[in-house]
Amino acid sequence: MASGNHCCSGPSEGSTIANGESCCSGPGYASPAEAMKAEREKILYAACLYTGSGIEEPDYLATIDVDPDSPTYSQIIHRTPMPYVGDELHHFGWNACSSCHGDPSKSRRFLIIPGLQSSRIYVVDTADQRAPKLHKVIEAEEIIEKTGMTAGHTVHCLADKIMISMLGDSEGNGPGGFLTMDEDFNITGRWDIDNTGMRYNYDYWYQPRHNIMVSSEWAAPNTFLPGFNLEDVSNGKYGSRIHFWDWEQHKIIKSVELGADGLVPLETRFLHNPDSTHGYVGAALGSVMWHWEKVDGDWQVDKAVQIPPVELDGWPFPVPALITDFLISMNDKYMYLSNWLHGDVRQYDISDPAHPVQTAQVWLGGLLGDTREVQGHKLEGGPQMLQLSLDGRRLYVTNSLFSSWDNQFYPDMAKNGSYVIQINCDPEKPGMEINENFYVDFSKEPGGPSRAHEVRYPGGDCTSDIWL
User: Fold this and answer.
1) Do the beta carbons of residue 453 and residue 384 sit within 8 Å?
2) Domain range for 246
3) What is the pLDDT of residues 264-313, one digit of tens each?
4) I need a labelling partner for 200 at 20 to 30 A (CA). Which of 22, 251, 328, 444 fits?
5) Runs of H (alpha helix) within 150-256
6) Is 271 a member of any domain?
7) 183 inside domain
8) Does a cis peptide bond (omega within 30 degrees of 0) precede residue 114?
9) 144: enclosing H helix or E strand
10) DSSP 8-state assignment for residue 406
């Protein structure tokens, strides 16, 4: 593993440098406030896929220039292909983050990229930030042998290890669990000891100062891989619970059934302030943002935002908003969420975390007919993955959810490709505006049109770092 950046003879102690590390310390930042002072991101990495598109090419990691002073601004400047076809690159994360900030022997250098369909895990070296290269491949057979799990999803750095949520058992059924790796990317086993009450798995976020982790439920891989089937919902094959884990004991201490308004709870986030117990989970099919906090020693969960479905010709039931992603600004002032089917991105003021107030909305396609163009490109599909700059001024948006679901709800995406666009924001003032000077076009990629999913920056972002 690469050593940390020892810079005592360089910038003054505590100052930040381009890769998100501070002088005489480890990766990341001392606090969320320090993260907001970091240098502006100049590179963006996007997980791009051909899986499910009919194009027999491997998925790849795209390096995108996001420096407005660069001649290649908003262009793909490098592609790092995986060695196999059919991985379905989806979510990915760093080997180190601010949870390792006190360890100067570590650096934020390697990206951990699971293949959701293949169950492989790729390790990509970003020592050359503009041209990452494949470092290691961990095959599904090894993962199954050592953990009994498949379908890796969320990657987080812990202070002493890397952890990945796994969505299936060895046969693709629920409930999955959590895989751990050491700093040399060796599989070390399972993190979870007692997962009683968990039917399915998806995302997770931990808050070590409160000895807690919260996880959510999508469905078993055997359910979601073929596409969405409404009968699977009525048959109980999709999740509706969130789970509170004892962080030190690695066991569930409370499961909360969210009911019909909590169907398919996906992304989970705590506020960035490590002293806070406030957090949220977005229920996709229920189209509800649920808020949690610790009150009198117990974790309480309540509705915070509910987006009503809309009647649409040709649909057998009202179309849900389908909240598929959300994130929180580093100063914990704003929450941004995407409604993949309705087609809008919303901004909420969460100064009172239990009572978000909507402050802005931007339409980016979707099923409701509110089409939008950027630089002459019609925005296919609906807004999906979000990533916010550390300073809270630039929100990046992609539109691919999952290959079989893309094909089902937005079939033109396979032939027209995906995009990354940018929305201008302000960390202190409400409002959003599309940056008309920024559009990354995936329609004419060398292998044919491809689809972009999650994005990350070399210096860290609003969904990478957790403070101990």
Assistant:
1) yes
2) 32-456
3) 999 999 999 999 999 999 999 999 999 999 999 999 999 999 999 999 99
4) 328
5) 221-224, 230-234
6) yes
7) yes
8) no
9) helix 140-147
10) H
Exposed e or buried b for every residue in 322-335, given b needs 16+ CB within 10 A? bbbbbbbbbbbbbb
Q: What is the pLDDT of residues 388-423, one digit of tens each?
A: 999 999 999 999 999 999 999 999 999 999 999 999
Q: Which two tokens stand for residue 178?
A: 């959590």
| 225 found inside a domain | yes
The total number of residues shown for the chain amounts to: 468
- Here the tokens at position 200 are 């399915």
**313 contact partners, CB below 8 Å, separation of at least 6:** none
Q: In this structure, what CATH number is given to the domain that contains residue 114?
A: 2.130.10.10
Q: What is the dihedral of CA 439, 443, 445, 451, to 10 degrees?
A: 90
4, part of any domain: no
- State the total domains in the chain: 1
What is the distance of C-alpha 268 from the center of its chain?
Answer: 10
pTM higher than 0.90, yes or no? yes
Contacts of 8 (CB under 8 A, 6+ apart): 23, 24
Tokens (6 digits) for 38: 């970091």
Question: Across 140-235, where does the E strand assignment appear?
Answer: 149-157, 162-169, 177-181, 187-190, 204-207, 212-215
Cβ-contact 137, 112 below 8 angstroms? no
What string of DSSP letters covers 374-404? ETTEE--S----EEE-TTS-EEEEE----HH
